[in-house]
Amino acid sequence: MIVGKIWDSEFPWDVRVEKVCDTLTAAGHEVHLVCRNRRREPVLESRPSVTIHRLAPLHGLLSRWDAALSFPAFVNPRWYRFVRHTFAACRADVILCRDLPLAPLALAVGRALKRPVMLDISEHYPGMLADLYNARDFRVANLLVRNPVFARWLERLVLPRAAGVLVVVEEMAERLVSLGVPRGRITVVSNTPRADRASMMAAVPRLRRDAGQPLRMVYLGNIEYSRGLDVVIEAVARLAAEGVMVRFDVYGDGKGAPAERRRAQRLGVADRVIFHGHQPYDEVLAQLPRFDAGIIPHHAIAQCSFTVPNKLFDCMAAGLPVIVSSMPPSARITESAGAGLVFRDRDPEDLARIVRTFPVGEAAVRMGEAGRRAVAEQYTWDRDAERLVAAVERAAGSAPASGLKEPRAAQEGAGSAEALL
Questions:
Q1: Could you say which of 82, 135, 182, 237 is the most buried, measured as most Cβ atoms within 10 Å of its Cβ?
Q2: pTM above 0.85?
Q3: pLDDT tens digit sequence for 232-253
Q4: How far, CA to CA in Å, does 158 sit from each of 19, 48, 94, 99, 324?
């Protein structure tokens, strides 16, 4: 079977895209990935688990407009021609599209090529767009290209038409059922770590914290307003005022990083909140056993309440007790595994309370081992990989997606939502 996969950003790198490609290839299938190319990398690259087809960059006078003209919108004729030509040339048997922005385009290409289409919905995309409309991040352009009202309409239009839908948590599966997606077409493929990575982290001995030593918390991932670093820094400042020693290490970067650095300086805890910037993923994972607790402080908004971050399972696999906000999936997994503690969303005082009383010695070791055991026995990519392969093979044998027409406007150089109806 030949799988045509659509990813709306650059590759490498994305951990879920990598795992999906590796898994399908290991199952004996061939994967062709189409992706964006703002870095102007080679348009064709062969790797052991995937053939990468990158959007050809524009040259000459148009090169300055290349980023804008390669924006991954389903009405972008450049993307439509690129995806259709690539999947026709490689004779894809099934199309697998990541997330909502290019889903209508994927269905239109599937109809044109008479191929079934699967959608991999890793986050609540309309919820993420709604969060952009808060006072900190709103841009006038969001009314046109990132409008949550339009995204909700689009979601209801395309999801029921897919041959199959992948989600990362049961909470999202139930949400999609409420939108009209048949439950039998939904498969939960979570953001669990691969066995080799989990084993690598489990093999590294952890440093043990004793009473009287400062709690060392670690965060890894993108730094954005919704990720909750503001809450952690506020809690660290409250604890510092009480004389409670705590250190917070941040591995990652993002548009919210400058504001969080300023916050730490303003609150007088820049010496306790250490920003390490972006570092290679494997190198960051190797650092985890140095810490006492992994923290996942995401705000319990729609964007974060229907997914689960990779970092939760990474910390559990490393044997770290975890401290998570009360966003439903992460809180459910943490509490059911006995792997950590949950604080009230966006409540720095409740987080400070947890830090003051965080277990030490054998109590902390037992909590970390519970998380490690849960990853080894339940939250493992081996199980998710089986579900992924079965779902893609099932979709490949189904009838092509219907209900969306090949967009004539996209072929002629312009597109619109109505062109797909």
A1: 82
A2: yes
A3: 999 999 999 999 999 999 999 9
A4: 25, 32, 17, 11, 33
Give the DSSP H/E element, type plus range, for residue 251.
strand 246-251
Give yes or no for a contact between 322 and 334, defined as CB atoms under 8 angstroms apart: yes
CA 209 to CA 211: how far, in whole Å? Answer: 7
Name which residue leads in pLDDT, 172 or 416: 172
> In angstroms, how far is CA 216 from the centroid of its own chain?
25
CATH of 2-192+382-414, one of 3.10.50.40, 2.10.260.10, 3.40.50.720, 3.40.50.2000: 3.40.50.2000
Does the pLDDT at position 131 exceed 80?
A: no
**What was the pLDDT predicted at 144?**
57
Instruction: Evaluate whether 333 touches 312 at the Cβ level (below 8 Å).
Output: yes
Size of the chain, expressed as the number of residues it contains? 421
User: Distances from the Cα of 22 to the Cαs of 12, 14, 329, 387, in angstroms?
Assistant: 13, 12, 26, 14
- 3-class secondary-structure state, position 115: coil
pLDDT at 419 (0 to 100):
42
Give the architecture-level CATH label for domain 195-377: 3-Layer(aba) Sandwich (3.40)
Type of residue at 217: M
Per DSSP, the three-state class of 44 is: strand
pLDDT of 415 higher than 50: no
